[in-house]
Design a protein that fits this description.
Chain lengths: 511, 511
Amino acid sequence: MQLPISVDQEADTPLQQQLAGSLRRMILDGTLLPGTKVPSSRSFSVQLGVARNTVVLAYDRLISEGFLEARVAKATYVCTELPVSDLADLPPQKETRLDPAKDLDRSAVCEMVLNLFSSEGTRPPLDFRIGRPDHSLFPIAIWRRLLLETLGGLKHALFEYADPAGHAFLREALRSHLRVARGVKVDIEQVIIVAGCQQGFGLTGRLLDIYGKDVVIEDPCYRGAEFAFKYLGSNLIPAPVDRDGIETDHLPRNGARLVYVTPSHQFPLGHTMSVARRQKLLAWAEETGTYILEDDYDSDFRYHSSPLAALHAIDCAERVIYLGTFSKSIGPNLRLGYMIVPKHLVRAAHATKAIMDNGHPWLEQVVAGEFIHSGSFENHLIKVRKKYLDRRNLVMDRIQAAFGPSQFDGIDGGMHLTWTLPDHVKCSAYEFQQKAKRLGVGVYSLRESPALQTKPFPGDDRIVLLGYSGLQEDGIEAAIHKLSQLGEHSIRRPRCSQVSQLYDFAQPHPQ
Amino acid sequence: MQLPISVDQEADTPLQQQLAGSLRRMILDGTLLPGTKVPSSRSFSVQLGVARNTVVLAYDRLISEGFLEARVAKATYVCTELPVSDLADLPPQKETRLDPAKDLDRSAVCEMVLNLFSSEGTRPPLDFRIGRPDHSLFPIAIWRRLLLETLGGLKHALFEYADPAGHAFLREALRSHLRVARGVKVDIEQVIIVAGCQQGFGLTGRLLDIYGKDVVIEDPCYRGAEFAFKYLGSNLIPAPVDRDGIETDHLPRNGARLVYVTPSHQFPLGHTMSVARRQKLLAWAEETGTYILEDDYDSDFRYHSSPLAALHAIDCAERVIYLGTFSKSIGPNLRLGYMIVPKHLVRAAHATKAIMDNGHPWLEQVVAGEFIHSGSFENHLIKVRKKYLDRRNLVMDRIQAAFGPSQFDGIDGGMHLTWTLPDHVKCSAYEFQQKAKRLGVGVYSLRESPALQTKPFPGDDRIVLLGYSGLQEDGIEAAIHKLSQLGEHSIRRPRCSQVSQLYDFAQPHPQ
């Protein structure tokens, strides 16, 4: 079979990419049906007049994407189960198309998305779920009072269309807060209120028009961001992370449209991006014209030392878009977050937000603004930070008591840490999670976390993620007591000196 | 100076467009600095081997976009003040491909978008602005009480991630309401809470993946919808409307991905789509596999006869996505709307909403649900409907008193009507608007309304749009008294019988 495909030797796009693109399109539009055998790399390379390796690389790419599959005798076929029934890849109009109804219903992606974002449902009763605030710590009486005052004083506001970029009062309060807390110095126009980080991902993607362009993500990274960028039609390029953050040596040399990073507390591994790495990342972004999306999702909680200034604060080239949220510090159902955009993107960002939903509901914006302005937010953060630090320490202490000396990471800030299973626990993190679940305890392996991991790395199957913010102290005690059944029997309790040498159980910094 | 630009004579893209694109990129990426003189059209056409007019047209385009400026002696320069903050045309990474979806004057669009969605600002004091509810009619005390009760009873809800499709309580309340009010019978899963109609446009566009596909819009139609579809990369196909709604004979024979209509009260002209036209539209949609987005933005207000059932209610082929909003019935700053999707799109729609922003803030959802459930919403609608009818009648009465017998359209429902200027008013609607503005009265010509009109039609420059919901009775009297200066002097007041023959000032139907 000769496919009606040709490549343009003069184009800037690499040949293998052209080839993969043409094949993908033919599969998606139904020209190449599932189960069809594609030409051998040898014959196809002759037909196209390209190196055989070009065809091999294109096939490899499509195999990894799930469009092709290699079968016996090295023949390659169009997959019988295509990854097409994605949200966006509805079959095209005209006669050839499949039935969108059936197609969407089969969609594995739909399932994954809805699982990721689903409400609580069937979680274990003692759950170390990641990123959940403890509602009992929130000053609900203050919030209620502010809500009433706001509604009384500003009731006309409900009946007007407002600034799509958000209520000026909240933006001003955030501007002041971020200047102190994160070193971010901006004009109020640069602050845009969004419906949580999730909308921030989408707004960034649409603002930068990432359709068909490269977006670098950390590997592993948060799936919510992955979905947002993928479904705006970008090409995701995973880059590995180590203890210093994203590995800048692995960034594409020619840059990308956007790189998405979590410098304060890498999601999910918890590392803080080092200063040197931050500088390298910024230099690369400036040199290549890449934008950086800095997701500072849980930076309100920092336990050791001062927090590093945000990437945005040390960016001289106007490459950084900063994203923060009240989902961790107040509550996720507020759906309230904020973006800081470079000055040259201000108008476009306002317009994009307007096109997306014409702005955020007004009432809780004003309440949140008053909450910050009155100092209640800072008081709340101080209280919560202390509590979460105590809980983090309790988790580490009890786990070492039950399982012996253990390696923890990501403990400097945030709301979760990683625990590397000690050698004497013979099962994988995934199996550990399953066993824990049967005991009524929720712990998370990378595989079952809200993280996308595209490549294995050494020790990844030993890592257990523990969110410690949502469980109260007695819950933590009870949970780890149950977990202790999964370790070796009769573990010696480690000497205290050992523990405290390994981890300085510091007080939260006073800021 | 010879610029390193060449054009591809074989490409599908017109030469002038290629040339303008290359120049724009060189300006945006700083290769061509502000103030640089570009080659004369004559020498450049020789260099490129193209007709001189090709260069002239490319320059003209860039001049209109604000990238180039013509100075003395016909020399052309890169503008010193560049229109940088475009929506998406940021300094590009290496990309040769021209994308039709992006071939837009982004900067001008930015301006238009922000104007459309901007807050009130410098509106005339007596403003017949379209689609503005009267806040004095809203039972704010009831709303306040519900808010308090909700916050007291459900305070934990703030701290959880919830169902991205919206709070079940509101969705159930809406389901019941729409069954009675609009004949729409659906399962709760089909109801999705969105941040107003504007987000509904975007959600529909992303759900149906309209990128690169055809979307039919009414001509004229609401600009907010136009922007939403355009910036998701679709090809907009305007179809004319007459007094029966969208002209089905002008729909593309092979269908489209989506057609966007306003059957209850065509925006902006106000006609109700006839039953015959509804059936034709549905038949065409079924036959061609096109989806219909039914924007029912102001259907809560119906004055004459029973409202026609929604398109959704008579759709047997599951082609209709229904969109409603609380922006007109309660207030726009609530940013609360709802979509009804066909069953086969339920899961994909939930997932798309989750990816977009992970759901709407919870508090006012529950309050709105309680507002409906308790009957307060229906009471409110009855009261407001009566008021708006009175105001509509007052507007027509006073205008005819001042200007003589006049033609009004779009009076059966909604919050605005159209008035065709009588012959003795010699100026165009646009000029009338300008003169009215100088008198402190806001009236709207099609040209200055939030409507996109792509083709002129007979009489379009005689049409004045008057929103009567936001002005109270004394305001209406005062405004039209001022306007009367713009008519012929000493107009005879029409005989009452004449008026009532023309327009049956009916009471609102009792529902």
